[in-house]
User: Which sequence fits this backbone?
């Protein structure tokens, strides 16, 4: 462990999104998350997004990458207006350098970068521990815990107005479906394209659904893949008809960690962040790439 007074020896700088940086990030992520994220995956996620390259900050100690924070540019609809925004994704701090408020420094720098790039909101999905940090130190607003449901059969979506939604177009959705970590399944039902991801082969997860009229050209590029699984798993927020359906709340004891929807206004407009979970349309594909 390094001493707190040696914090001054740590350098924090904006990410450059180079091949060598992706390799270093891959090593850091494997050490921190115990999971492999290849340089190829990071290049896809950070560099090829049609909404723009990732906004990142890195921490170095004696030239070694020890910390990282990233935002992914997205487009959102908020109270009938469209905005450039960013999704909070990776936070990684080497275990030997924790307790030095590195996350605070990295996030602060990245939020400033996002504002300079014209982003007006930052949204995120956080666990209980990180939610407290985001709310306490960075004044995020906690809106709601995400719903987690399991069951069988189709879920009827009630098409009423919503006050928050992530916006996709042909380019951004085509990019999103090319996630190199997965081969998503697609299915057309009642004029909607459904995107699924198998979950341990026992569940299939509904990633999102999209209008056939709006996205027919997008899904023509992908072969139809659909493997039947007995149970469906649904995670997100939205106006769905759960009553009298064969869907149930996923047991709290079996969840890895509760997931919370959080949002922060980084504009100079002081937007009203009062929003109810019932008026949010937030699908798994909007935030989960793992």
Assistant:
């Amino acid at each position: 462990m390094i001493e707190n007074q040696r914090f001054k020896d740590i350098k924090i700088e904006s990410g450059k999104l180079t091949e060598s940086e992706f390799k270093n990030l891959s090593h850091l992520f494997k050490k921190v998350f115990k999971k492999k994220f290849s340089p190829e995956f990071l290049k896809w996620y950070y560099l090829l997004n049609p909404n723009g390259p990732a906004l990142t900050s890195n921490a170095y100690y004696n030239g070694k990458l020890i910390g990282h924070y990233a935002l992914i540019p997205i487009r959102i609809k908020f109270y009938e207006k469209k905005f450039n925004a960013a999704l909070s994704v990776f936070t990684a701090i080497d275990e030997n350098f924790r307790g030095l408020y590195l996350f605070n420094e990295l996030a602060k720098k990245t939020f400033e970068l996002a504002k300079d790039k014209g982003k007006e909101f930052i949204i995120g999905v956080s666990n209980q521990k990180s939610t407290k940090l985001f709310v306490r130190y960075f004044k995020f607003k906690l809106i709601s815990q995400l719903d987690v449901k399991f069951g069988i059969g189709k879920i009827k979506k009630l098409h009423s107005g919503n006050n928050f939604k992530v916006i996709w177009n042909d380019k951004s959705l085509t990019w999103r479906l090319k996630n190199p970590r997965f081969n998503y399944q697609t299915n057309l039902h009642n004029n909607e394209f459904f995107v699924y991801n198998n979950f341990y082969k026992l569940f299939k997860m509904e990633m999102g659904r999209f209008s056939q009229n709006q996205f027919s050209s997008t899904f023509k590029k992908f072969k139809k893949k659909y493997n039947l699984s007995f149970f469906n798993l649904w995670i997100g927020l939205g106006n769905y008809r759960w009553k009298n359906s064969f869907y149930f709340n996923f047991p709290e004891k079996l969840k890895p960690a509760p997931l919370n929807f959080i949002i922060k206004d980084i504009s100079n407009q002081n937007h009203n962040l009062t929003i109810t979970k019932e008026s949010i349309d937030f699908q798994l594909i909007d935030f989960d790439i793992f």
